[in-house]
């Protein structure tokens, strides 16, 4: 995997790395469930406020599910999620070697005006994540999509 961004506000020794290309015999959905359970456990151990834990879990689940669903359709073979807890911020990094996709620009803008029955299914996930985090940055490097998100404890 290519190098990832590092923030001085987080401790690298507490980093969780989930590598979706190195697990044998486990489906992507099973891996996602395992990853969410581990993130929940770390949040409990770190003493994250309930609201922070819910925001982190939603971000990890939504963005991972999107990447696993659409990335594999477009030739993705490698996907990594890195979660680094800090005393004031949680850093979430996601890397994949699928087709270039910049969710800061390429994700469709959801229709928030129409009634629920008139809206297409889907399209709210990236929007919700962007609304819940403190920074949402993307770059493409050496054939990999890099997404870096920071979520402050108190927002």
Q: What is CATH's topology name?
A: Heat Shock Protein 90
Query: Main beta sheet: strand number and arrangement?
Result: 5 strands, antiparallel
Strand order of the largest sheet: 1-2-3-5-4
Number-wise, the strands total 5
The CATH architecture classification is: 2-Layer Sandwich
Number of helices: 3
Secondary structure class reads: alpha+beta
Shape: globular
Q: Quote the average pLDDT.
A: 82
Question: Would you write up a description of this structure?
Answer:
With 155 residues, the chain is of the alpha+beta class. The protein has a single domain, classed as 2-Layer Sandwich (Heat Shock Protein 90). The chain has helices spanning 28-46, 50-73, 125-132; strands spanning 16-19, 79-85, 89-96, 135-141, 144-152. It has a 5-stranded antiparallel β-sheet with strand order 1-2-3-5-4, covered by helices on one side. The longest helix is centred in the middle third of the chain and has 24 residues, at 50-73. The protein is globular, with a radius of gyration of 15 Å. It starts with 15 loop residues before the first strand and ends with a strand.
State the gist of this model.
The chain has 155 residues and is α+β, with helices and mostly antiparallel strands.
SSE arrangement:
Layout (H helix, E strand, L loop, with lengths): L15 E4 L8 H19 L3 H24 L5 E7 L3 E8 L28 H8 L2 E7 L2 E9 L3
Antiparallel strand pairs: 1-2, 2-3, 3-5, 4-5
Helix pairs in contact: 1-2, 2-3
């Amino acid at each position: 995997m290519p190098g990832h961004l590092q923030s001085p506000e987080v401790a690298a020794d507490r980093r969780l790395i989930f590598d979706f290309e190195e697990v044998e015999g486990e489906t992507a959905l099973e891996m996602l469930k395992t990853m969410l359970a581990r993130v929940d456990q770390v949040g409990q151990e770190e003493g994250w406020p309930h609201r922070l834990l819910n925001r982190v879990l939603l971000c990890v689940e939504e963005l991972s599910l999107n990447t696993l669903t659409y990335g594999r359709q477009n030739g993705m073979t490698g996907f990594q999620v890195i979660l680094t807890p800090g005393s004031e911020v949680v850093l979430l990094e996601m890397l994949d070697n699928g087709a270039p996709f910049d969710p800061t620009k390429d994700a469709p803008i959801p229709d928030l005006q129409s009634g629920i029955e008139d809206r297409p299914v889907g399209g709210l996930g990236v929007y919700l994540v962007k609304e819940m985090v403190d920074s949402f940055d993307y770059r493409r490097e050496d054939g990999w999509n890099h997404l870096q998100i920071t979520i402050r404890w108190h927002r």
